[in-house]
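Q: Structure for this?
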Amino acid sequence: MTPFAIQNGVLHAESVPLPAIAARFGTPAYVYSRAALEASLREFQDVLSGNPAGTGALVCYAVKANSSLAILNLFARMGAGFDIVSGGELQRVLAAGADPGKVVFSGVGKTAAEMAQALDAGIFCFNVESIPELERLNEVAGRCGKAAPVSLRVNPNVDPKTHPYISTGLKEAKFGVAYEDALALYLRAAALPNIRITGIDCHIGSQLLDPAPFGEALERILVLVDRLSAEGIAIHHLDLGGGLGIRYRDDQVQPTVADYLTPLLDRLAGRGLQVVLEPGRRLVGNAGLLLTRIEYLKPGEGKSFAIVDAAMNDLMRPALYEAWHDILPVVPNAGDTSVYDVVGPVCETGDFLGQGRALCVDAGDLLAVMSAGAYGMAMASNYNTRPRAVEVMVDGGQVFEIRRREAIPELFAGERVLPA
Ligand code: LLP
C-alpha cells in the first residue's frame, strides 16, 4: 500500500494534505499512517496463518524501532507481542496495553532490577546473551521465587551483508553467545535451578534485502536444536529475530514477507516449534515520514544548501549510517531543479538529511523525508536544546496528535544550578 501519494498536485498522508498538517501542528513533524502500520503487521500475520508451521507464531514488534504509545497500542490491539530491550520499554508496552505473556526481552546488558521487573510482569521469554547474564538471571529469579523462561541468543556467524553498524550476527559482534559454545552453555543453563529453557534465539542484523542469510542462520540453528534434543533439552520456540529490510530508494527491491518467511516456515514443517519473530523496521519504516519546512536556500560555490527546520537530532540515520532517505517536495513544481544538500540548523557538518538532491524549491516550501517511521523519532535527541518533534497519526481523513511537541522549558526542567 502507498500511504503517502500525490493527489491534486499535493502530497497527502492517506486522505489528508500534508500542508494542512504543517499548518495545524507546525514543523518538524513525524506523520504516520494508521492504515500502513496495520497493513504491514497484517502482512506478517497473513503469511504465518497461511502456513502450518506458522500457526501459533508470535510476532514481537521490536519496540526500539518506534516506541510511540499509539503505535504500540495499535499493534497490541491486533494481537502482536513485543521485543523489548530495557525496563523502560517494558513499562511502555505495558502502558500501551500489551499482553506481558507475549513479550520477549533482548539486549546484552539487562540489570537485576530490569530482570525482576520482567519476572514480575510475567514475560514470555528472556533472550539471554551471555553466561554472567544467565547466572544473574538465575539469582534474581531465585530471589523472586520464580523460574525464568530463557532462550540463549546464539550467534550463527552469518554475514547479513548490511551496514557494519547494524550487522549483529558475526563472530566479532558483542551480541549473543558463540555458536561453538552454545551447546555447553545450554547444558549449564539446564543445571541452574531457577532457569527454565524454553527456546533458542538469533538475530543477524538489520535492513536485509536478501532473504538468503536468514535461511543460512536457520540451518545452523536447527543443527543446534537437534543436538540439544539429543542431550535431552527440549526447545519449544525458535526466535528468528528481526531484520527484514524496506525500500528506501526506488532502485531497491523489497522482498515480500512471504519471500522471506515462506522458505523458513517450509523448512520448519513438522517440527512442532513455535516461531517467534522480532520485526521492527519492516512494520513501521515506510509508514512514517518527517515533514519539514525550508527556512533558507543558501547558494554556495560548488554546492547549494536547503536549510530546513528538521535536523540530525530529529533523524539521525543519515549522519550516523550515511543512510539515504528520499526527500520529496510536498507540492512538486515543474520548474528547473537545482542540486542541494538538505541540511538542518545543528552545528555539525554531519547534520544533513540528504546530499546532492535535485529539487525545484523555494524558501518556505515543505519537504517530506520519506521512510522515517523506523529509528527516526526513537533515536531523536535534544542536541542543541532542540525540542523533539510533534508526532501525528493519520487515519483516513482524521489526524491525531499522538505526542505533542516538547516545550523548551521541559528540556531543562530536571536540571539544577549549584547553590549560591
Ligand atoms: N531484534 C533484535 C535483537 C535487534 O537487535 C533488532 C534491531 C531487532 C530485533 C529489530 O530489527 P529490525 O527488524 O528493525 O531490522 N538504528 C539502526 C537499526 C538498529 C537495529 C538494532 N537492532 C537503523 O536506523 O538502521
